[in-house]
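Exercise 7. Given the components listed, write out the predicted structure of the assembled complex. Treat all entries as one system.
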Amino acid sequence: MSERRAPAGGSMPWSVRLSMGFVALFVLFALFGQWLSPFDFRETSLLNRLEPPALFTGEDSPYLLGTDARGRDLLVRLAVGAQISLIVAVVGTLISAVFGSLLGLIAGARRGFAETAIMTAVDVQASLPIIIVALFVLAMFNNSFILLLIMIGFTDWEGYARLVRAATLSAKEQGYVTAQRVLGSSAARIYLRHVLPNIFNIILVKFTVSLPLTILLETALSFLGLGVQPPMTSLGQIMSEGRDRLLNAWWLTLFPGAMIFLLALSVSLIGDWLRDRLDPTLIEGRRA
Amino acid sequence: MTSVLDISNLTVALPEGGDRPFAVSDLSLSVGAGQCVCLVGESGSGKSVSAQAILGTLPRALKRSGGRISFLGKDLPLEDKAAMQTLRGGRIGMIFQEPSASLDPVMRVGAQLDELLSVHGVASRQERRRRIRELFAAVRLPDPERIYAAYPHQLSGGQAQRIVIAMALALEPALLIADEPTTALDVTTQAEILKLIKDLQTRSGAGLLFITHDLGVVADIADQVLVMQEGKVVEEGTRDAVFSRPTHPYTIKLLKAIPRRQARPEREAGPLVLEAEGIHLTYRPSAGFLKRREIVAVEDVSITLRRGQVHGIVGESGSGKSSLVRCILKLETMDAGRLMIGGEDAGQWRKGMPKPMRKRLQIVLQDPYSALDPRQKIGDAIAEAARVHGASGAEAAAKARELLGMVNLPPQAYERFPHEFSGGQRQRICIARALATDPEILIADEAISALDVSIQAQILKLFRDLQERLGFAMLFVTHDLRVASAICDDITVMWKGRVVEQGRVDDVFDRPRHDYTRQLLDAIPDKGSFATSGLSHLEATP
Amino acid sequence: MTNRIQRLLFVLAASFLLAFGISGAQAQEDARPPFVFAVDGLWPTLDPVIGISTTGGRVHTNIFDTLVRRNYDEDPEGNTLVPGLAESWERTSPTVWTLTLREGVLFHNGEEMTSEDVAFSLSAERLWGEEPMAPRGSNFARGLVRVEATGPYTVELETEFPDATFIARLTTAIGFVLPKAYYEEVGTDAFGQAPIGTGPYQLTEFDPSERAVAVAFDEYWGEPAPFSQVTWLVVPEFSTRLAGLASGQYDLIINVPIDQQDVVASTPGVKLLVNQVGNYPMFAFNTLTVDGMDDNPLQDANLRKAMVAAIDMNEITEALWDGQTFTPTPFNFPEYGDYYDAEREAAIGYDRAQAEAYLDASDYNGETLIWHVVRGFFDNYETAAEFMIEEWRDLGINVEMRILDNFALAYERPFHLLNMSMSSEFTGDPYRPLWLDWGPSSSRVTASHRTWEPSEAFLEAGERFERAEEFEERNAAYLDLVAAWEDVTPGMYLWRNLQTFAMREDLDWTPGNTQVTVFDARFVDPQS
Amino acid sequence: MTGLVLGKIVRAMITLLITVTLVFFFIRLSGDPAAALAPPDAPPQVIEQYRRAMGLDQPLPVQYFNYVLGLVQGDFGYSIHTGRPVEEIFLARVPATLLLGLTALGIALVLGVTLGTVAALSRASVLDRFVMAFSVFAFAMPNFFFGILVILTGALVFGVFFGGTGGIANFGQVLAPAATLGLASMGSFARFTRSSLLETLNKPFMGALEARGIPPMRRLLRHAAPNAAIPIVTMLGLSLGGLVAGAVVTEQVFSWPGVGQLLIRSVQTRDIAVIQFSVIAVSFTMTLANLVVDLVYFWLDPRIRRSGNV
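Answer.
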């Protein structure tokens, strides 16, 4: 029976509740975490370099999570880093999602030349892994935050385009689209008012899959020095700066690492749950 | 007559929280050698679960909670996995509803048959080859070499079902279980397959447990009939007893729901609202690099429709009836022909159809599940149809409410979403939406074929009532001659994209001129009782 | 052209085979152990002049020999000169030096080194002519007007004006002797990829992004090489280098971050080597208005001085380096022997009040100054920069650090501050750091990324310095040069660089106070 | 069928041409390529020399034509630092990366598919949950961090070195970097295999096979596996990009002498000819790999061969 389930309601496993809780906590920390610390995130202190976290040593120190090699408070840096990482991940993923979905919708709706052109662009993008593009671009231009966002934003649009095109094609076979056409609704009305909301779930699930990937991508770019540039910071950058000090300043990698890992994990779990709640056949195993 | 299968008090529990505690409750039946027992019921009645229980292949969520099943006089070793495995496909053969879905899509057909034989102990390769050849002959498959090497998707529905039957019979089973084996097939194919199953069963002397929702089919093949409703047997008896002296109201309801020829009052001919002449449509799908195939979908079809008239278009899958509808709706651009809609020449519109014309022509589609936008309240869906054509928000809402009443849905339905409705209710919503623009022509494209029998009858009645009340012209597309005969004034029979017969319903049914029409009429299940118009003795039963 | 495609296909096919059927390394018959040195990078070419760099210096001296050497064995600052390929040298006229070459020295291809090779190595066509093969040499060869092989083992060098210290320049990269015939046969590029020298090791393999391998040269003129083979392996990650050393895969690793020294020192089987080297990280102020920087606030010397005076560089250096190095008074470097004056103080030292006064005197209006920094090029540089930026912000000067991936990007304007390091190793006196690195022929003045125009006073003092024969006179000119430089303040020196290695505990190798790493018998104890 | 394959090949070639064109215009867009290609402190006359040598004094369309013609004829340019032909530099690195990448892919596929299968077969059990948790963990772990952990643990705890020692001396050495690189893909494969297999197991034909008495193991291996493999092949194609990206990081961490390290090195030294060739070569490889995936897909799924619905 092809009974479709309602998009909301039903019981939620504890793992998903926990994940949602963590994501909420993460967002709160990113927004307000800076106020937990008396320091500015750029404020360096010559005398307090690589202070261990007071939270663990129990020492009387204002550095609850310790300091980095420049004597900057890790807590406030994590908050700012979380903020920037979140912006990079969400904005980057959004650019991909909006741009890719729109093109996918057009390709699915219009077919013909528009489709061929878009799908060729998809092929081109698919043949160029982001890190290669990033290295190429950075060899040519100076790194900037906007450039980084654009690069990250344009990595995964092809995934959305493929997915949305396939979903649009299958939505087109649905009776409600035919009914709308017979009613004389405009193409814009059909695709934006009816098809798009119905494939939105698929985009949403894809979003939850690509968001952690984007976070990890930013981490990898930071490791190569291609990510967010100082004095701005990101979780990936904090972690990357701490990587040589794993043996004597574990907090520099452990805290941002745990945050990245838990965020990626939570979003993945939420995505899995969403996928299970929605029609799984619509999301997986489809091919353009 | 020796008994092949004896079931006593079989009960299968549903998981907790379901709408009823048992999928099957207290089922007892017995199938003798050479005997055909039909299990009849609508979807969800528990008939397929019964078959799974016998085979020991119940889904994990379902548990057999009581009853005994014995096979050839001995209890089925349901707990002994290995023994059951040998029995399945060996002494018990099974035929499924969707023939192509019951074959592995990525394995060649021959290999699947070969595997079956090999698993069941036919060790020699030559022997297996020989047996397969015999089976192909027995199920009357043409071109065995090609089919042996073919993948399931390369077979027609009928061919695939013959393969499935061949598999079921491959090891000369004592019991054959057929679960809706013809539902997915065309009428003529259905007739052939039914005959084939019956013949082979009779010849082999196996017992046949036949599961179906179609009483017509039951009438054709059953010796013994059990009617199931919500997991319980409500009526049991020989074929003749059940058909002529049904006792349970549900059985009567089912029997009454079988569409039958209706005498249609002779009405004065209204003005011409649709005139199609010499329509041609060819699809040209891309077939890889620089290649295009040509598929002629509609060839030289002419049709006329008058106000107040119901014109049926009958044909099997691939006959071009849906393509014709798409041409008329200008969803496809025809290659040749003249199309006049409400006196306007459709040829003047290069692409699509101008909006004011659209409202004059509406459609109700086959699948009520996909025809509604799942994210739109149904009231809004109906109102939207009116709004697209210029009604104000308030007007449209009022219209939607009125229409909901007209299709017998409660006013509260307005605020609900499609998933809250059953298939039949959804089809009512679709009809309401189609009527929201006050169309002159309503096209029903297989509009009732996805529904259960009893629902079919209701929707058919609704169409009839609305049509008489509102007086629109109707193009009724169906593969089912019985349905067509129940509502149409005129009828067009299509075959391979062409019109083979056109005329008044009675003329076509009583005096078919074309072979194909005759074939179709022959294929109607339970044609004996179909010929008489209506079961008069049932009409009297309360 | 199609040839190249064929070759491409062939190499591709071969590489597939290679990927899946790799054979082990070649057997070692030598009794001497092989040696693996994990470095953070290699220079793209091994031509010792084109490749003048920290990373190049780690290889060059093992493959080539200079005509004259510094004696790091006896003097940590290397201020005494000892014979190299030149057995002796003599000033035969005020402007002419005559070298007598060592006889019987063989190049790695078996040919004997002659005066022709020396003359070629120091020639105008290679170093100091119009379009030299190795343009970076011109600055080092400054003043040279004639190079001539006067006999099979004698070479005459003539300078523009009398230069008592010229001979010391033959200890630098231009003093390496290259085989003329081979060089001319293969050309500059190919030579840089497969160089031949007279050194203790003979290069067998070179891929600048992966490794360089050299085997002991059995016919070396000096003491036999202590290792059968030396491999410079590019291992960019410190953790990986440390892991390789700790597990015995590597014998020596470079660049232990300062705050990892304790970790390394406590790793079993590993010892830490820290030494100061004659190299000074610094930054240059862009004092010019070229390329659209018309409003460059740093034209104003007061702003520059304010920035210098605002920083307590000593404290930063002390904190960052844990007392292992120091911040020099401008151009007052210990490796300059007699010129070094421990008492001299900087004209513009740390003085907060003075900094504010300078700032008030300037026209600075809060414009953002951009500091171009190449990522990870100098240990602690970015860290120090962050501290300095904080200090400047306190004072009201806005500096923004931009970390870039390579020098090419760093050299792209606009920038106000540019990171760099300057070496002092050269002639054992302030000639290079002051006059060659800041003088009229320096890249600070001539290159596309130039940052200043020397003042009249600087030019005058420089020429005086260049031509002075006597120490007193030179010293006076040197102090005038420093004063002229400080008067303009076109840059700021941060600290004397530190070089850190970690080494297998049982190995006895000393780096000397030089960035050049040499693995010959002078630096390695054969017992180890 | 041949038409379809031919169509795919043509499309791949168009893809490549577009990439090549993009690279060309990108380099032109970034400013003066001569200045970019010349050594950093080159004087103006040297830059002018480069400009002439590169034909930059000619009109843009002519430059573009010459560039494409050069590529077709196998003239890919020379490294500015070493003067070696770029394809030679690049190809010298291919074996190492190929070894790393294919081993990682092998590990990811074998382990991922096995774990996914185990999870699917023991659906909703503790084992299933554990496998899925592990696969999410593998996916969410930044691979440079994992790599460094592996290296440090190996060396300091077990005295074994997992990093590069120059060249690829033995196959055992590839295991640690390959496992690091393959970890994320392994997680994806496990999750994907699980859902794909579950979907296949729920298909009507699996029930039909059971009803025909085909033994469970045979149903799994001969029927469920090939059907479930079809979407996994798609996944394989999609994961290649991630693998290439991961290889860059992993090579850097393990000091593995492959293409990734070359690229980073070339970016640091701004060796544009090498970068340009690398981008084109990677794009070529990816396009080729995607083509192969498509063909495998055709081969696996007979339905596509006919309908041509790709």
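Discussion: Chain D touches chain A through 63 residues (CB under 8 Å). The mean pLDDT of chain D is 81.
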